[in-house]
Amino acid sequence: MMEVEKSVSEKFDPLSDLPDELDNHRVILEEDEEGKEGGQGELAPPMLPKDGTGVHHPHGRIIKKAKRPSKANSFSEDGAQPTSGLNNLNRAAKNLRRSRNAMGRGLPKKGGAGGKGTWGKLGDEMELPWVDPNDPNYDSDTQEGEDRNHVKLKPVAPEMAEDDIRKTVEPLILEYFENGDFEEVLFSLEEMLQNLGSRRWMVVSLAIELAMDHKPSHREMTSRLMSELYLKVVSQRDIGKAFDHLLRQIEDLILDTPDAPVILGNFMARAIADDCIPPKFLKSYKGHVEEPEAKKALCRADTLLSMKHGMVRLDNVWGVGGGIKPVKYLVKQIVLLLKEYLCSCDIAEASRCLADLEVPHFHHELVYEAVVMVIESMHEKTEEAMCKLLQSLFRSFVITIDQMRAGFQRVYEEMGEISLDVPAAYLILERWVIRCRQAGIINDEIVRKMPSRGRKRFVSEGDGGLIKDFSAW
After folding, report:
1. Do 188 and 182 touch, CB atoms closer than 8 A?
2. Measuring CA to CA, how many Å separate 424 from each of 374, 385, 451?
3. Which residues pair with 55 in a beta bridge?
4. Distances in Å between the alpha carbon of 165 and those of 129, 196, 205, 238?
5. Facing residues of 455 across strands?
6. Which of 61, 148, 220, 459 could make an SS bond with 57 (beta carbons 3.0 to 4.6 A apart)?
7. Cβ contact 219:266 at 8 Å
8. pLDDT, tens digit, 9 for 90 and up, residues 353-406
9. SS3 readout for 142-174
10. Is residue 249 classed as helix, strand or coil in its secondary structure?
């Protein structure tokens, strides 16, 4: 407090150093004007004062000491006579607050703090002796000991409403789905942790709700985010409260996500495997749940935890990400997808299965397998069905022109081996490429690169019986 008062006084009193300089200053008296005139330009010899209080200066000047009144000069006692130095002073002159120094400037004595009834020096108002402890502005920092701990100031953070938390947390989760940076989410939530208050559980609840509407890879990211936020932003009680809230809202979640019970059960099992909630959390619901969909979610989680090596397998409960899946597995899934499509001709289902694989960089494999199936089937209906599928995927921008070009190019490069199994491969390929060009799937560049089977023939007699290679393209 003293340091604060000092800084305030220094800020509002720029002349605070001046009295110190005046305290160390000496008042030097020069020669009398009469001596200067009598000497006509010559220095007069130094003269001592009549009362003998003068002091000789080495340079011939006299330093005169200021006279201080003593108790002997006081008029308070009867019969006391003033000294010779105060003979000419009356009571009014004695009580003057001006300095009695003959060479003074008429300023108040002691900087204004000369006695009773004065305002005091500059800065004295900061040290008022009549501070009332009951005053609302009373600062207890000036006290010492136990009284100092009576008043404690704590920052107050207003708790956010549910709508405000939803508006703040949802953009963070959606951005996390795009960049996968959980540290940014953790840092943002830690900044607003005090404002979340008792509604920290809404962070987990909102993350799971958003993950239900996204791909399995985003659900995997949500499970990892939940594990990272554990004991940093949310506690076990918060995670359990979030799952309890979702179980109570399972009917509303099914309207948007028909597989909500299965997804919620997977999340619960994964949270238990990650040690975010204890296994007894599931057992506590036994015999207390009447909703059939909620029972389905709890049974799903219990089944995943009860299977052999369940804790280890739960690491891949959402499947393996598209970029991590082995190539043989992807090829097998694409071939199975095309075979199911030829049986059902359901373009929407085929598009959904292709999107679930999450391998947009590997879509050229679907084009390659589709062309090979058309050549091997040697049936016009297969050509028509495959053309419709590729046309739908191309127009919906699921398969790009680059992936389409790469798929056809792979077929062109392997036509020599394909023709060994299918002798009419070149004729079927030519008919298929023309169909695709008419459907707008490929451009003229891909058509021009289409190979044709080389034929050897004897030319006319005028050519000398030479054998020439002929290519129609």
Report:
1. no
2. 12, 20, 13
3. 63
4. 51, 7, 11, 15
5. 470
6. 61
7. yes
8. 898 888 888 999 999 999 999 999 988 999 999 999 999 999 999 999 999 999
9. HCCHHHHHCCCCCCCCCCCCHHHHHHHHHHHHH
10. coil
Quick count: other Cβ atoms within 10 Å of Cβ 268? 27
Distance CA 389, CA 341 (A): 9
Q: Is 56 helix (H, G, I), strand (E, B) or coil?
A: strand
pTM for this entry = 0.51
Q: How far is Cα 375 from Cα 410, in angstroms, rounded to an integer?
A: 14
Q: Encoding tokens for residue 123?
A: 């800065």
Rounded Cα gap, residues 187 and 185, in angstroms: 5
Residue 33, pLDDT above cutoff 90: no
Q: Which ranges of 62-108 would DSSP assign to H, the alpha helix?
A: 91-94
Angle between helices 425-439 and 380-395 (to 10 degrees): 40
Written as one letter, the residue type at 201 is: W
In angstroms, the CA 396 to CA 352 distance is: 12
Query: Is the Cβ–Cβ distance between 225 and 273 less than 8 Å?
Result: no
The pair of structure tokens assigned to 472 is 């129609």
Given a contact cutoff of 8 angstroms between Cβ atoms, the answer to whether 433 and 472 are in contact is no
Residue 430, SS3 per DSSP: helix
What is the identity of the amino acid at 129? Answer: P
Q: Reduced to 3 states, what is the DSSP secondary structure of residue 29?
A: coil
- And the tokens for 258? 């028909």
Q: Could you tell me the pLDDT band of residue 65, with boundaries at 50, 70 and 90? A: low
Task: Write the single-letter amino acid at 271.
Answer: A
Interior CA angle at 437 toward 436 and 438, to 5°? 90
Q: Which two tokens stand for residue 299?
A: 């049974």
Q: Per residue in 155-196, pLDDT tens?
A: 888 899 999 999 999 999 999 998 889 999 999 999 998 899
